[in-house]
Design goal:
Blueprint (H helix, E strand, L loop, with lengths): L1 H6 L6 E3 L6 E4 L9 E2 L6 E8 L1 H4 L4 H5 L6 H8 L8 E6 L7 H11 L6 E5 L13 H17 L5 H27 L3 E3 L20 H11 L3
Parallel strand pairs: 4-5, 4-6, 6-7
Antiparallel strand pairs: 1-2, 2-3
Length: 224
């Protein structure tokens, strides 16, 4: 986990694929296998998804590109006619399990260099976790969090103060993301996250061959 959260984030999310000049592929563990070309091909509208497990659960952007039924109208409206009516929509999913807004922002700063027409951000579930990595920047984040916590502790209980401190840190990072996207001239959409685990489909099929699981599954959905 230290390698995933502390070391992997120090290297670029994407790098040019060996033997494929101009094609960029992810180089962080657990990343979706989505690739793209630079320069961006003419007639292509490029969408990056950034975020945490809620984004990662969506799966490969290649699959999403062919399944945009409910979201197609909104996506078309957001993208506008910048690349023409017959443009190909290319989705690259950079969602990573466990990432909070600080690490998501690092991904955003990178993908803004790859000619996006739109960025979709799903962030918020993990920002209550305190930074655990070594280094000056991470230590400063820990201290900032504790200062906010002490401030909110003046008029709140410990648990509420911690929650408000996390919200404050998250708000500041979202504003930073919005400002970076604005400077780059790229629209960014921040999404409300699913409210419960039931809204997030698992990656694998239910193990209904297990009698115990099948019985529990049936009882759960019958309210028992």
């Amino acid at each position: 986990m230290d390698d995933y959260y502390c070391n992997e984030v120090k290297k670029p999310f994407f790098a040019e694929a060996a033997g494929e000049k101009g094609r960029f592929a992810p180089q962080r563990k657990e990343a979706q296998p989505d690739t793209f070309l630079l320069p961006k091909p003419a007639g292509t509208r490029r969408v990056f998804i950034i975020g945490e497990s809620v984004a990662a659960l969506l799966g490969s952007g290649n699959d999403l590109s062919g399944k945009m039924t409910r979201g197609r109208k909104l996506l078309k409206k957001l993208l506008g006619s910048a690349a023409g009516a017959e443009a190909k929509t290319e989705i690259i999913n950079c969602g990573m399990d466990g990432y909070e807004s600080y690490r998501i922002n690092g991904v955003l700063e990178e993908v803004l260099k790859y000619s996006p027409d739109l960025v979709v951000a799903l962030s918020g579930n993990n920002d209550t976790l305190e930074e655990s990595c070594p280094g000056l920047e991470c230590e400063l984040r820990r201290r900032k969090f504790r200062l906010y916590e002490k401030y909110f502790d003046i008029s709140n209980t410990g648990r509420v103060a911690r929650k408000k401190a996390a919200l404050k840190m998250h708000e500041a990072m979202l504003l930073k993301m919005a400002a970076s996207a604005k400077r780059a001239g790229v629209p960014i959409v921040f999404c409300t996250l699913p409210a419960a685990v039931k809204d997030m489909p698992p990656r694998q099929p239910a193990p209904l061959q297990s009698r115990e699981f099948a019985l529990g599954y049936r009882l759960f959905y019958s309210g028992k």
